[in-house]
Amino acid sequence: MTIRAIVFALSIIGLLTSSITPGFAAGSGDASWTETKSPDLKAAVELIRNEKYDEAQPYLQKALVQEPNDADVYNMLGYSQRKMGNKDKALGYYTKALEINPKHRRANEYLGELYLGLDQPDKAKERLSVLDKSCFFGCDEYTTLKNAIEAYEKKQ
């Protein structure tokens, strides 16, 4: 097999895997991941996308009761709590999301951003390292966190 054929095959694999990975960020515009999620989580994410973090809480709590081991629910709880300024709660939710799924891309990105907000850039860089290893062909989460770390360091 030629190098060109190998590169082509890897490119196809990358396209296929990126198309099945859920776009999960609030406001990402890609809601395809919600097809298999509870109606409560779907409602919460829609509120979060509209920056109605407080209104999303009851839906997230219902989703948590329905799916107590869903890393996506914990991630969105962490995201919304962080956006409301509740850093300690956010930290707990992100930690739980990563206990369930250590490679959860959004939880790693968002936890890294939280660490920057807590003036702990070394911990943010640890999250970036996890993303670097789990994003074989690169990913938005890695790029976003890398840019956030660079911006943080320029301010120091």
Distance between the termini: 50 Å
Sketch the major β-sheet: none
Class by alpha and beta content: mainly alpha
CATH fold category name: Serine Threonine Protein Phosphatase 5, Tetratricopeptide repeat
How helical, in percent, are the residues? over 70%
CATH class: Mainly Alpha
What is the architecture at the second tier of CATH?
A: Alpha Horseshoe
Q: What are the low-pLDDT stretches, counting only 5+ consecutive residues below 50?
A: 4-32
Mean pLDDT: 84
**Number of distinct helices:** 8
CA radius of gyration is 17 Å
User: So, the CATH homologous superfamily?
Assistant: Tetratricopeptide repeat domain
Silhouette: globular
Beta strand %: under 5%
InterPro entries: TPR-like_helical_dom_sf (IPR011990), TPR_rpt (IPR019734)
Protein name: Tetratricopeptide repeat protein
Keywords: Signal, TPR repeat
Organism: Kiloniella antarctica
Could you please describe the fold and organization of this structure?
The protein is mainly α and 156 residues long. The chain has one domain: Serine Threonine Protein Phosphatase 5, Tetratricopeptide repeat (Alpha Horseshoe). 72% of the residues lie in helices and 0% in strands. Helix 4 packs antiparallel against helix 5, helix 4 runs parallel beside helix 6 and helix 6 runs antiparallel to helix 7. The radius of gyration is 17 Å and the shape is globular. About 19% of the residues have low confidence.
Quick structural overview:
The protein is built from eight helices and no strands.
Q: How would you describe this structure in keywords?
A:
signal; TPR-like_helical_dom_sf; TPR_rpt; Serine Threonine Protein Phosphatase 5, Tetratricopeptide repeat; mainly alpha; single chain; TPR repeat; 156 residues
